[in-house]
Amino acid sequence: MNVRRLLSGGCAGVLLFSGIGVSNAAGTAGGSGGVSAPQLKTVTYSGAGAAGEAAVNGTAQGGAPASGEAVPRLAADAGGSAGTAETQALATAVQVDRFGQWVSATFPEKVTSESQLLEDVAADAAYYGALQAPDWDPYGGLKGSREQYGLNATGFYSIQEAAGRKVMVTPEGNLFFSLGVNGIAPTDTYTVVTGREGIYEWIPPYESEYKSAFLNTKDNFSYYLANRIRKTGQPYTSRSLYTEGIQRIRKWGFNTAAGWTPVNLSREFSVPHVPFLPLSDMAWAKVNGLKFFDIFVDGAEAKLDAALGPLLTEHKNNPYIIGYFFGNESYYHKLAPDLPKMKGSEVAAKRRLVQMLQEKYGTIEAFNAAWNGTYASFTALIDAPLYIDSQQAQYDVDDFVKLYLDTFFGTVSRVFRKYDPNHLLIGDRWLTLPVNNVKVRGFLAEAAGRHLDVISINHYSKNLDTVMLNHIHQASGGKPIMLTEIGYGSSEQGLGAPTQMLVADQNERMLRYRNYVEGAASLGYIVGVHWFAYLDQAATGRWAEGTTGERYNFGLLNVADRPYKPFLEGVMASNKDIYPVLLGQRVPFKHEFGDVPRQPGTNKMEIPYTPAPIPIDGEVNGFPGDAAAVTLGPGQLVNGTGGEGMQGEYTFAWDENRLYVTAVIKDPTPMKNNNPNINVWRGDGVELFFGPQDLTTPGDPLFLDRQLIASAGLNNGQPFWYWYFTNRQKPVEMAVKLLPDGSGYVLEAALTWDSINLQGQADTRFLFDFGFDDSEDGNTRKRQWVWNGTSANSTNRGHWGQATLVKRAAPAIRITGVEEGGDYTDEVLPVVEVEDATGVRSRTVTLDGAPWTDGTPVTAPGSHELTVEAVNTVGITAKKTVTFAVYGSTALELSPAAGQYSDEVQLEAKLSGSSGGPVPGAELSFEVNGSAAGTAVTDAQGRAVLPYRISTGPESGQLSVKAAYTPAAGLYLRPAASEGALTVRPEDAALQYTGETYVKERRPAVLSAQVVQADDGSAGALSGLPVRFTVSEVRPDGTLRELAGVTDSVYATGADGRAEAAAQLPPGLYEVRAELLAGPLYTAPAPVRSTLAVAAPVAGHSVSVNGTVPGGTFLGKPAGTLVLNSMVSYDLAGSLTGALRVSGEPSGAELYVKSFDWLVIAGDRAYVQGTAVSGRQTYTVRLLLKELTTVSLYVWKGRDTSAEPVHKQLNAQLSGAVLTLP
């Protein structure tokens, strides 16, 4: 029967083991087994809690936990052994005063007289009278929230959504966050007094006014109840304590009577509560040695139906029942490692496992192949221990765990809902250990998500584990979670708490509570948090666990019924203002403690080879010289506090058969371990972790991983150990010996390679970690040190470091600063180091055959050879040679250059060495615009000059220039390069028109222009230059009309600089414009123009002009009128005949043209040009005519018609006539 349910109280439980004597003498065990079955003398307390029993890793085999406990050591707790004379003497000394307080503890609230208790009556009335309970609805909910958030009043507690969050809702439809207190009863205040009466100042007679403070007999007594009797003068009754407790917790802002509280009183007084379904009372479903409900017992569902039906039916309409728990802290983490080894004739779940395996494999041969077994039949499996010796076996057992959870949760849910459709099924209050295991909690959450309304977890932790909670919430498909046990305690009043709940004082206790509760409420899916517990536990340990029971500061009140007021101030601050946090309207309280758990490191180590086996004798001897010790100190403390001066020094070695470890542990209370079983982690010991596969895979330990804890305590004079993550306990050769001065112990072990699934071969690399545990009484771990990982090493192999097996036979020579085949610039400094485990006898270093002194840089350019020879103290020689080269650096400086296209310029560069001096005789190569320009050799000043004629020009006006030095082979100089620019200016050039000016055949006219460069003595290329011709028609009025499409846009010059184009033109007069377009080689001169007359001579065609045009001046003389007389025609030979007279009237100059250049007749237009001589001056006269009266007149001196005319008269109206024939 569950102790908690029997007494309606209790808290986190533990496994209790009978005391086993611990000797300080050395002990050895050569190949003996680990913990044997007869050693497992246990008293099982039903409800392992925060401190928990052995932790489990993510595999079916389980691992030792990281949690520890911190409790006062009671001198009389001899652990079942006779104890020393000192211990016996202490057992007769008074340690607990008459009020149940530690004599050794000093604190302001300590009661020293009965009168103080009587004075507390008035003080209590004033204190509690000043407190005001929150104005919540009758069920503890937020008034008015139903209407505000659209919630439903179902008449019972339900799960709904508000503000996007999973919330619990009262029967009236208001928001409800369950703030509960466990154990509103004196259960944990009882302590065993019989047999150790001498440590108590006072124990009243059983038959006295204090009889109600005893638990049924005179053996167990409650000092809390005795103090209460002193205060009230009344005997204890559960009713009076309950009613008083409910009134108090309501004023402190709690709204729920949580677990381990009298259910009948909660019903009677209409207090919201969560009863337990009585599954723990069903003996038929219990399994000896494994706390879980065997749902596979024949007729299990019918038996549940018969037991639960009447109870559920009776209370199904009670609105003050929030819901039901159906268990507490089952050992789900032990199903996989322990159940397969049980006998099916005794355990129905084992038979169901065998059935599942037979259904899967069909034949025993197939099963044996998958499990590495040698079983004769499936029938033989029923009572045979099944060992998980293959990965497939692990998978199969995992499948069975999932089958079990689905069947168990599903069956309970089905029966429950058959009789009670109104209330919530709130789970079975999961233990910390299984939910710390990622794989196990995933299985739990998935099954719970299918069958439960709310998941309940007893989550003890200094800091809320949101990673774990988020995982469970998500894996369950979004189920809400209730945290059904939390707690913190300090040692201020002589009590304590497990390590993960131990705080410095009541102020920290308050801050931790606020962090936890408000942090949980803010997550959006937590629907309640229940504190454990109402009262402190007894100073000498709660009665149910004998003389070694928990003695923790878990209460809201101490043994004198005095409230922890500073702590409760914070409790009230959070409790009474919890709904704004729940709804996301207020940021949750958060105090930063800076106690983020230590993160794993990245440590790696090499384990050296030993040519001879290490003696396992409790002495540090036999290790090779290169087996350096590794020390664990304050920086590696991962669990607990204190332990000043404690440290562990580890030395490792290996050979082909074993891995050797020697640990020297400094410990003021050495070799204390009373746990020759799976709980070996509770006492002094050395921890080792091995991961032979998948070195980069974190998370749950894998099938081949192993954890070993070797106890520092002895059992009947012999060492003991325990292997985790496996069903098999392999032998370990080990020895433990007290240090001569008593300051600690030496623990040695030799592990066969098959025990850790490795092979003894050089260069083998594996995950590895090690540490040690410290207990001050042999029963409770107080501290833990780990080399690389954390307190979660047993559940996450990603926290472990790495080790490599190395085999050294000669001194290790290390040359740094230079590498084989390396080359270096100007200088290099080699660094030579020689190491050897046995020591170095001699060491010589030579450079190029000559002695070399450490710290001397090598600067001479050339090839070098550095040789190191070393001899260790056992005469083994090592030699190492490194060949390398030193090159002198060089620098190249290129001077800028500039010039015109086609000119010759000087490209100049200077080469310097590392010291800055010139480098003569070096050949430099030059490039211009990416093309080789030539080479030149440096002179005595390091300068090289290369003449270079500019043969191209860039658009930007600059050409890139590069100079480079490439050393000849064997010179040991570095190459150098430099870049610069050659500024190029275009060459001056002129353009001449060289094309036709008169065409009288019916053919294309030849247009031509020639580029002529300046005569500067350096000719450049003239080909490929762009020339453009533009042809325009000259009209009789002197205007031009450009003709499109007569020529192409641009023509390239030939080698002589000439560009030509052909133009097919009709008869007429044209102007040809030629221009050289701008380019990188030449400047663009002014365009040139020329007249082109195109005629089609026909005999008899003529033009005549007779008349006058208005004048002004003519050839510098006044002329009011110009008289034009002309008759020009083609004769039969195609020549021009006739005359043209232009004279100024009345007395102006006169020109008489008898020689004609051309006559062009084009329809009603005519053009004529000829020459006249006047006063030894030749003039060129041109007429532009349009029938009948339009005349334009040009006169030039000389024959150059491209010059400005001396007379120009355009578009003049002729008084007379212009006639053309035809």
Written account of the structure:
Keywords: Signal. Pfam families: CBM9_1. InterPro entries: Carb-bd_dom_fam9, GH, Ig-like_fold. This protein has 1222 residues and is of the alpha+beta class. Among the domains are: 604-621 and 641-718 and 728-806, Immunoglobulin-like (Sandwich), CATH 2.60.40; 812-887, Immunoglobulins (Immunoglobulin-like); 890-983, Immunoglobulins (Immunoglobulin-like), CATH 2.60.40.10; 989-1094, Immunoglobulins (Immunoglobulin-like, Sandwich), CATH 2.60.40; 1102-1221. 16% of the residues lie in helices and 33% in strands. The chain is built from 19 helices and 65 strands. It has a 9-stranded antiparallel beta sheet with strand order 64-63-62-61-60-59-58-57-65, with no helix packed on it. Helix 8 runs parallel beside helix 13. The longest helix is centred in the first third of the chain and has 29 residues, at 391-419. It is elongated. The chain starts with a helix and ends with a strand. The relative contact order is 0.08.
Shape: elongated
Gap between N and C termini: 144 Å
What is the residue-averaged pLDDT? 89
Classify the beta-strand content into a percent band.
Answer: 25-35%
What's the story with the biggest beta sheet? 9 strands, antiparallel
The CATH class designation of one domain is Mainly Beta
Helix content: 10-25%
CATH architecture level-2 label of one domain:
Sandwich
Count of strand segments: 65
Low-pLDDT parts are 1-61, 66-90
For the biggest β-sheet, the strand order reads: 64-63-62-61-60-59-58-57-65
Q: Radius of gyration in whole Å, from Cα?
A: 55 Å
CATH topology of one domain: Immunoglobulin-like
Structural class: alpha+beta
Number of helices: 19
GO molecular function, one term: carbohydrate binding
Organism: Paenibacillus mucilaginosus (strain KNP414)
Protein name: Agarase
Pfam family, one: CBM9_1
